[in-house]
Write a structure and sequence with these properties.
With 197 residues, the protein is an alpha+beta fold. It has 3 helices and 8 strands, in the order αββαββαββββ. Strands 1, 2, 3, 4, 5, 6, 7 and 8 form an 8-stranded antiparallel β-sheet that branches. It is globular and about 45 Å long.
Length: 197
């Protein structure tokens, strides 16, 4: 027969492990609501995934990420490479699968980095600016959008920010699911292109 203290210790250990596996809500905090989409999960490379878990949309977003080309010397980074708090892309149509990735382009300028992205579009995407990207859109930063076709509400939006070591780059990537739809807009109103502000 098992000793009562050993049995009690095994129950306490099992409960402790269960508490670690499910997470705990701090005292006084409401329990988190059930999420309809997966929470952002940073990977070892600093890429953050969120949104729909649709396999086709995830594969498209990953393909666009894998095809991103940045200037020689660029290093992968995490979200701490710069403060991107003031600008995030709202993808109005969905559901979408999203990825977010970060880099540092050392000793670079905004215009050189933007020119490189224009000359090396990922996955066959096209610039929302066409051939007429405004020069010097912002002296400290800019956003650039690339989409699969005119009017699309998916693709990649890059945010470029000047930092002491060069230019920090954030890519926000969104790929729609096959059943994605856009909310209806009032007559005469249309969606702006991703990355145009």
């Amino acid at each position: 027969m098992r000793h009562p203290i050993t049995f009690a210790a095994s129950i306490v250990a099992a409960l402790a492990l269960t508490g670690c596996a499910t997470g705990q809500t701090p005292a006084g905090e409401p329990a988190p609501a059930a999420a309809t989409t997966p929470e952002p999960t940073p990977s070892r490379s600093g890429v953050i995934a969120s949104g729909s878990d649709d396999e086709q949309a995830q594969a498209q977003a990953q393909a666009w990420l894998d095809d991103i080309s940045l200037p020689p010397g660029t290093t992968a980074a995490t979200s701490t490479v710069a403060s991107f708090l003031s600008s995030y892309t709202g993808w109005p149509c969905g559901p979408v699968s999203e990825l977010e990735a970060f880099w540092l382009v050392p000793d670079a300028t905004l215009s050189d980095t933007a020119d490189w992205l224009d000359q090396h579009p990922a996955g066959g995407l096209v610039s929302v600016w066409g051939d007429d990207r405004p020069d010097g859109m912002d002296s400290d930063g800019m956003s650039l959008g690339y989409i699969p076709e005119p009017g699309a509400q998916e693709g990649i939006v890059y945010t470029l920010l000047v930092v002491p070591d060069g230019v920090a780059v954030r890519a926000e990537i969104a790929a729609q699911t096959a059943d994605a739809s856009c909310p209806e807009l009032p007559d005469g109103v249309q969606y702006g292109a991703p990355g145009m502000g």
